[in-house]
């Protein structure tokens, strides 16, 4: 039985004159992934309220992306934000007022708010917990 011929390694192959060199590409994240790559709701809730009395805590940031856990109690005093945001309802029900429109919400709902739009959670249950995702440039993205 004849032995199979091995292909020469990349180092052993001689380049023709004028051939382009192969350049190793740098990894997209040269220092590895961001240091915080997993946040649990239970851990984030353990930090609420903050010592300053805030009802939201930052779970993750990367570039323009910021993810928080928000658990208002009693009322929702927030003001319009300067970036677009998305809410994901984890627990609780109520009414979401967004730009003058009111819609009921429940766990599993996704709610979008453009930058600078008046919004708040109203008539909500005491167990309300939401992930909040802020993203994009200040002033919001343009459609």
CATH first level of one domain: which class? Mainly Beta
Shape: globular
The strand count comes to 8
Share of residues in helices: under 10%
The span between the termini is 67 Å
Given helix and strand content, the structural type is mainly beta
Strand content: 25-35%
What is the count of DSSP helices, taking H or I runs of 4+ residues?
A: 1
Rg, Å, rounded = 25 Å
Summarize the main sheet: 5 strands, antiparallel
> CATH superfamily of one domain, please?
Jelly Rolls
CATH topology assignment of one domain? Jelly Rolls
Poorly predicted segments: 9-13, 22-30
Spell out the helices and strands N to C: HEEEEEEEE
Strand order of the largest sheet: 1-2-8-3-6
CATH architecture of one domain: Sandwich
Nearest-integer average pLDDT: 84
Topology, pairings included?
Blueprint: H1 41-45, E1 56-62, E2 65-70, E3 84-91, E4 94-98, E5 101-105, E6 110-113, E7 119-122, E8 129-135
Antiparallel strand pairs: 1-2, 2-8, 3-6, 3-8, 4-5, 4-7
Task: Describe the protein in words.
- The protein is mostly beta strands.
- It has a domain of 95 residues: Jelly Rolls (Sandwich).
- It has one helix and eight strands; from the N terminus they run H-E-E-E-E-E-E-E-E.
- Strands 1-2-8-3-6 form a five-stranded antiparallel beta sheet. It has a three-stranded antiparallel beta sheet with strand order 5-4-7, with no helix packed on it.
- Strand 4 and strand 5 form a beta hairpin.
- The longest helix is centred in the first third of the chain and has 5 residues.
- The radius of gyration is 25 Å and the shape is globular.
- About 10% of the residues have low confidence.
């Amino acid at each position: 039985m004849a032995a199979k011929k091995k292909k020469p390694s990349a180092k052993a192959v001689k380049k023709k004159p004028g051939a382009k060199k192969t350049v190793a590409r740098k990894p997209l994240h040269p220092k590895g992934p961001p240091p915080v790559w997993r946040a649990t709701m239970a851990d984030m809730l353990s930090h609420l309220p903050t010592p300053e009395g805030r009802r939201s805590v930052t779970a993750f940031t990367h570039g323009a992306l910021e993810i928080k856990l928000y658990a208002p109690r009693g009322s929702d005093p927030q003001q319009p934000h300067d970036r677009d945001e998305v809410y994901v309802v984890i627990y609780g029900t109520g009414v979401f007022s967004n730009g003058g429109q009111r819609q009921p919400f429940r766990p599993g709902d996704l709610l979008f708010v453009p930058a600078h739009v008046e919004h708040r959670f109203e008539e909500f249950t005491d167990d309300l917990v939401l992930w909040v995702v802020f993203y994009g440039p200040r002033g919001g993205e343009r459609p």
